[in-house]
């Protein structure tokens, strides 16, 4: 009745009124997830197939985990409407809106991040990179385009095609940078994105992901 053209979609407001008027026995967490999915498409519509899949749990394991995570009590208001936030909370909210497409995911991220245990991995990696750069800068007396210095490639840390057998170089090159610009950009991203992510997902997941990226690079 609500979809006479049989498009498979209805407006999210229509669906919300339907749930309210008929008191459908739908899990609040799954309802939140469905609304988040609706907010993720351009028209802001609820997809019938999404509803069927959601209720029957015909989803990937990651989607099922997301539904399970939705069992925790979260405020239903839009995250942008939160008032009275300090600087750090506003920063976390900004990161959430920059990297996550769905409101449900943003709220989950915002309320899941923890200061304990502290995000030591990303902070330690960034600090080590800065220290190594300063040491090589002083040693080579060069702070921009250090790779152009004849002594740069003699470092035991850089990746060198002629020394592939030295397996540690596939990891330690992450401490070497071309110059101030690359170091500054990397450090900024690691602190702005990596630290908040580590506060949600923990040191083991983030360290594994980071080192996997280093090896892939």
From TrEMBL:
<keyword id="KW-1133">Transmembrane helix</keyword>
<dbReference type="Pfam" id="PF01694">
    <property type="entry name" value="Rhomboid"/>
</dbReference>
<feature type="domain" description="Peptidase S54 rhomboid">
    <location>
        <begin position="166"/>
        <end position="217"/>
    </location>
</feature>
<dbReference type="GO" id="GO:0016020">
    <property type="term" value="C:membrane"/>
</dbReference>
<dbReference type="InterPro" id="IPR011992">
    <property type="entry name" value="EF-hand-dom_pair"/>
</dbReference>
<dbReference type="GO" id="GO:0004252">
    <property type="term" value="F:serine-type endopeptidase activity"/>
</dbReference>
<dbReference type="InterPro" id="IPR035952">
    <property type="entry name" value="Rhomboid-like_sf"/>
</dbReference>
<dbReference type="InterPro" id="IPR051739">
    <property type="entry name" value="Rhomboid_IM_Serine_Proteases"/>
</dbReference>
<keyword id="KW-0472">Membrane</keyword>
<comment type="similarity">
    <text>Belongs to the peptidase S54 family.</text>
</comment>
<dbReference type="InterPro" id="IPR022764">
    <property type="entry name" value="Peptidase_S54_rhomboid_dom"/>
</dbReference>
<keyword id="KW-0812">Transmembrane</keyword>
<protein>
    <recommendedName>
        <fullName>rhomboid protease</fullName>
        <ecNumber>3.4.21.105</ecNumber>
    </recommendedName>
</protein>
